[in-house]
Specification:
The protein is elongated, with a radius of gyration of 25 Å. The longest helix is centred in the N-terminal third of the chain and has 18 residues, at about 30-50. About 25% of the residues lie in helices and about 25% in strands. It is built from three helices and ten strands.
Length: about 160
């Protein structure tokens, strides 16, 4: 299960590639309340399911040698070599911790939603004002990310 990103937190850099925005949502809730409740649930989740990093390594790769022949017909073979696998760390509790966080937010009345970035035509017709209260969502809802990391949720036909 992928972690649900927090609304209006510097993680917004992840949406710089114009991908969807995932956030916890409850219509009419203030953004500051969402942030506060999310932090409380994150703390609860890390206390109940602590980080459990494991160091792992991908398999090594063998690169066979090459055969070289000179003009006299004599051939030579260079030795092959092993390239070690990449060493990386995995938090084996991350998925369970994400579930605990999501369940905590659900008990508080929040649900995860994902919004696409707004098309330029929608952006150009809307006054740029960061969202402070979560608006009603429609199938046309989208978001705009500002340079300072805040966002605006736009629901065409709705104030937002």
């Amino acid at each position: 299960m992928k972690s649900v990103l927090r609304l209006l937190i510097p993680i917004m850099a992840l949406s710089a590639c114009d991908g969807p925005l995932s956030l916890y949502y409850r219509e009419g809730e203030s953004v500051s309340r969402v942030q506060s409740e999310t932090t409380q649930c994150q703390v609860q989740a890390v206390n109940e399911v602590p980080v459990a990093n494991q160091v792992r390594q991908s398999p090594p790769t063998y690169w066979p040698g090459r055969t070289y022949c000179d003009s006299g017909g004599r051939c030579y073979r260079s030795p092959g070599w092993w390239q070690p696998g990449r060493v990386y760390t995995v938090d084996v509790n991350q998925g369970l911790r994400n579930q605990v966080e999501a369940q905590c937010m659900a008990r508080k009345g929040f649900r995860p939603v994902s919004l696409p970035p707004c098309r330029q035509s929608v952006k150009s017709q809307t006054q740029a004002v960061p969202t402070t209260t979560l608006p009603p969502l429609t199938t046309q809802s989208c978001f705009v990310k500002f340079d300072n990391g805040t966002i605006q949720i736009i629901s065409p036909g709705q104030a937002g």
